[in-house]
Amino acid sequence: MSFIPVAESCDFPLQNLPYGIFSTEAEPRNRIGVAIGDYILDVGAIKHLFQGPILSQHQQVFDEPTLNKFMGLGHKAWKEARECLQDLLSARNPTLRDNKELRERVLVLQVLATMHLPADIGDYTDFYSSRYHAMNVGIMFRGKENALMPNWLHLPVGYHGRASSVVVSGTPIRRPVGQMRPDDAKPPIFGACKLLDIELEMAFFVGGGNQLGEPIPIGRAAEHIFGMVLMNDWSARDIQKWEYIPLGPFLAKNFGTSISPWVVPMEALMPFVVRNPVQDPRPLPYLLHDDPYNFDINLSVAIKGEGMTEAATICKSNFKHMYWTMKQQLVHHTISGCNVRPGDLLASGTISGPEAESYGSMLELSWKGSKPIPLGASQTRTFLQDGDEVFITGFCQGDGDRIGFGCCSGKVLPAISA
Questions:
Q1: Is-cis flag, bond preceding 265, omega within 30?
Q2: Annotated catalytic residue within 75, 133, 321, 333
Q3: What are the b/e assignments for 251-286, b being 16+ CB within 10 Å?
Q4: Is 133 a catalytic residue?
Q5: Less CB within 10 Å around the terminal CB: N or C of the chain?
Q6: What is the DSSP letter of 143?
């Protein structure tokens, strides 16, 4: 237990301690914080208390405006930091508990803080790792017999996204414009996207990287995974349909990707690890790992349209439905010799489950626009309208412990016509 009160419904108990970057009106400098209850612990202000063998030599990483250098210290440093923070915030340790002046200086109410991107994201990769989602989309566009492409069950399919347009939760998203071909018998047209969609995803930050030409082996992959965030990888379906052959997503995905501000450490998630899915055919040896590395994370998506008094939940899913694990994604990414770096972001792809209410995109929920999605108060959607706010939340539920991610939100702004 922490000396700081934490409600049962709070995402941030002592067992969580996610990292983020925050600022305040009183101190506008971006700095590293850890969420505990309704507060943020200013980690740089207590850096002198990190006295372990690694961090005592690297206390300056907590003065940084991003998490990159701390991530780059590696998994042993992350473990050391977590143990120190849990001790300092526990009810048994008087260091902060009994020092009123220090406590008031280093603890900031979350409602008084502005959150920023957790890291300087050098590269962003999006995978396509939910079999249910891949099947649904394949059935819609190619039929049940050809739903999965021939490579899908053999490797984690992915593409390189646009890091510059990854934004922190709360940042508005402008409806994109581009080329579309709504009528296959006519030439393409140019204009504002009409089929704007959400994609329920999660993503992980790379911690320690690898050298160019030296792949990360599957047995050490976990040492390179720092922690996880929620993600909405907004998608312009009509632009995507026209442009994606032969090289995949481009303008349909590069206009905005939202992530939650708090990075939940993998160690906080390990109590909620579940068995990996049965993979048939058996992957090639470089992708094989028998140790479980899938996670029971409850996920939901809600939409609040203009004029609505509260958001309506449209999807409830779970990260455990993923087919390819984060270890496999990272290892496959580097097997060519590609180097990843601290702060790189690797995303899951849309997370869909087996039931209709667990589909992680409006494309699936409306089945390509044929089934209106009810929002209550006589409102429905097939795809997003201007003014809609989207909220993604996620948490693991233990026996009295809730390990949560906060919220990933964004509001759709009207397009700017060229």
A1: no
A2: 133
A3: bbbebbbbbbbbbbbbebbeebbeebeebeeebeee
A4: yes
A5: C
A6: -
